[in-house]
Amino acid sequence: MCISKEGEKFILDLNMYLMIGGKNEKEVKEFIEEAEQHLILGEKEGKSVKDIFGDSPEEYAKSVEAELPYDKKGVLNLGFIFIIGLVPWLFLNQLNYGSYKTSVLEAIGIPLILVVYLAFILLFAKKFAFKNIKFNISIYIFSVLEMVALVAVGLVGQNMEQIELFSEPTVRIIIFVLILVSIIIAITLKTTAPIFPFLINMPKILYYFFGLNLGNLDTVALLIGVVLMFIALKIETNSSPKVN
């Protein structure tokens, strides 16, 4: 028997809440499986999610969170993976077909904005885990603020003194290493997300590895990269296991 839409949403929200809380992935998975079976049996008897888990999903999630141990090692591993995954975005976005140049403001400001953005996303995801409308509104508002901040830093930074950090041959080596590391992470986590920055910045990669300067086709190639990214994301989402 399949779980109702209400039940499926509750299970997914509960799983997200516990994972963001730094709980052990294996223990969370085992608990979620038990909760699913409990939900299936309850719904067979005509009970709703509230009948089975109580009137407040948040209070139930908090009580479960208190029982499960904090997985410090797992959190550190996720933090390390995030940092490794963030580097390609930061590095490739700063490239401008040649040596790697940046201003002090961009070198400090852009990573800081992205880290703060992720921190708030995680905060919102947990705070509004069972309140989709509030979560979506919060994400939308903060995403707009993030984009404004990034554009502001970019506009101001490009008028500041540019410091050359890496020569073009060194840039080529760094990109190659980043691609290898991202492929390893993608295989390990079974996700296409680590390859997204390379798809978005495909024109730059073609330039550094094959000497292709796309010129007027640069924007077209960028759009193709964006389309490929969304196709990969769509395929991955559709192939993800469903809650039964």
Estimate nothing, just give the exact number of structural domains.
Answer: 3
Specify the biggest β-sheet: 2 strands, antiparallel
Q: Count every helix, treating DSSP H or I runs of 4 or more residues as helices.
A: 11
Distance between the termini: 7 Å
Beta content comes to under 5%
**Widest sheet: strand order?**
1-2
Order of helices and strands: HHHHHEHHEHHHH
> Helix coverage percent of residues?
over 70%
Structural class: mainly alpha
Q: What number is the mean pLDDT?
A: 81
Task: Write down the overall geometry.
Answer: elongated
CA radius of gyration: 22 Å
The tally of beta strands, per DSSP, is: 2
Low-confidence stretches: 240-244
Protein model, in words:
This is DUF1129 domain-containing protein. Keywords: Membrane, Transmembrane, Transmembrane helix. It comes from Romboutsia sedimentorum. The chain has 244 residues and is mainly α. It folds into three domains: 63 residues, no CATH class; 65 residues; 77 residues, no CATH class. It contains eleven helices and two strands; from the N terminus they run αααααβααβαααα. A two-stranded antiparallel ribbon has the order 1-2. The protein is elongated, with a radius of gyration of 22 Å. The C terminus is likely disordered.
